[in-house]
Every structure is written in structure tokens, then in C-alpha cells.
Specification:
Elements lengths: L1 H10 L14 H12 L10 E6 L2 H10 L5 H4 L2 E8 L4 H14 L4 H16 L3 H25 L3 E2 L7 H7 L7 E10 L17 H4 L4
Antiparallel strand pairs: 1-2, 2-4, 3-4
Length: about 210
């Protein structure tokens, strides 16, 4: 497994040109969804939502908001990683309830965690909560990229888009969400020369130290 993981990460790259004839296998899609469902988040709150963009006309609109990056329309699918704008008391209680019921706990056993959620998150400013939630999407992205590499799917994470315009296009505000990242997923085109380039990474001795 160790070798398989490293080989998969050596194989992956930020694909510049997708094979537009390829489709996303239903089993691979299900695996990706399960991976994202299992992604770790602070307190396990999962303040995230993921939108598959498969409609061609909608993708063309998104392409114009993403500096005309062709991957948006050529990839088998595009995943929008979104985060919640806030964490209200109802959401926090639903999370505590879910934990209690899933683990067959008594309310008394979950009471301390429930109170801590309300206290710790209730002290945060609204802007801080929105930013904090957005950071959770990057944890999910890491899991997504690794999973895609192991599935031999190409994935290109993108911050290069107009999030306010995308939020409006997808009516995310009405859902209490905002877009954080785009990630086209599919199969690389045979003539994408970027796949043959050597990875450029700093040496490990500059990245790690022990104290």
C-alpha cells in the first residue's frame, strides 16, 4: 500500500487538458462521495456541501467565471466544494444529536460536548465562523486529490474563479453556503504535455525538521 500511495501521488498532476470523451464511472463517483463523507472536520461538524456540475450549459457559464479555463467544460465532471456561512444553534444541536444516537449514548453523556459546541462556537464572530468553515473545504480537497490519484482519475483544484459570481449563479446564499473551490475530475488527454514533466518539489531536508 505504501508503494501504491507514493506511485499514485507521483502520477497525479494538475491536469491542464482533459479528454472530453471520457465520463465519470458511477462506482468511482460513489467512492469519491464516500471519501468526502469521511473527511475529517473540526468537531466532526462537516460544515460542507459538494455540488456535481454535469450540465454542459451550466459548465459553460462557470467557465466564464473561471477565467475561461477549458478544464471546466472538458473534464468528466466538476465538483464545487462549498462551505456553510454560519453554524447556528439548530445545526450544532443536530450534530450533537447525531453523535448521541449513532453511538447509542445517553443525553447526559453528550451534554458536555453539546455545551462546549455552543460555548466555543458561540464566542466566534460571524466572519470567523465563515472563514473557519471554508478552511474545512481544504481538508476535504486533500482527501479528494489523494483518492482520485489512487483511482487513477485526474483532478485539478482551482481557486481561480469569481466566487461571488458563482455563488449567485448557483443561488448558494439561499442555501446558506458559499463556494470555496472548484475541482474538475476526469481523464487526462493523451496530448497534455504537462503529464510528462518532472515534478518540482523542494527537498525533504528543507521541509522537515525534528526537535
Amino acid at each position: 500500500m505504501k508503494d501504491q500511495l507514493i506511485q499514485a501521488l507521483e502520477w497525479r498532476y494538475a491536469t491542464k487538458k482533459f479528454d472530453a470523451t471520457q465520463q465519470l464511472d458511477a462506482n468511482d463517483k460513489e467512492t469519491i462521495e464516500r471519501v468526502l463523507q469521511l473527511t475529517p472536520t473540526s468537531y466532526g461538524l462537516q460544515p460542507l456541501h459538494f455540488i456535481w456540475i454535469e450540465d454542459g450549459a451550466l459548465r459553460e457559464q462557470i467557465k466564464t467565471l473561471a477565467w475561461n479555463q477549458q478544464q471546466i467544460v472538458d473534464a468528466a465532471s466538476v465538483l464545487v466544494l462549498c462551505a456553510k456561512n454560519d453554524l447556528d444553534t439548530t445545526y450544532l444541536d443536530q450534530h450533537a444529536d447525531n453523535m448521541r444516537d449513532t453511538r447509542a449514548m445517553a443525553e447526559e453523556q453528550i451534554k458536555g460536548f453539546r455545551n462546549h459546541l455552543h460555548t466555543a462556537i458561540g464566542q466566534k464572530a460571524a466572519a470567523d465562523i465563515k472563514s473557519w468553515n471554508g478552511k474545512q473545504a481544504y481538508i476535504a480537497l486533500g482527501q479528494l486529490l489523494t483518492a482520485c490519484a489512487l483511482l487513477e482519475l485526474d483532478a485539478t483544484p482551482m481557486e481561480g474563479f469569481d466566487p461571488a459570481a458563482l455563488d449567485q449563479l448557483l443561488d448558494l446564499h439561499a442555501q446558506g453556503l458559499h463556494s470555496v473551490l472548484l475541482c474538475p475530475i476526469g481523464k487526462r488527454a493523451a496530448d497534455d504535455h504537462y503529464q510528462t514533466l518532472k515534478k518540482v518539489r523542494r527537498p525533504k531536508n528543507l521541509l522537515f525538521s525534528t526537535r
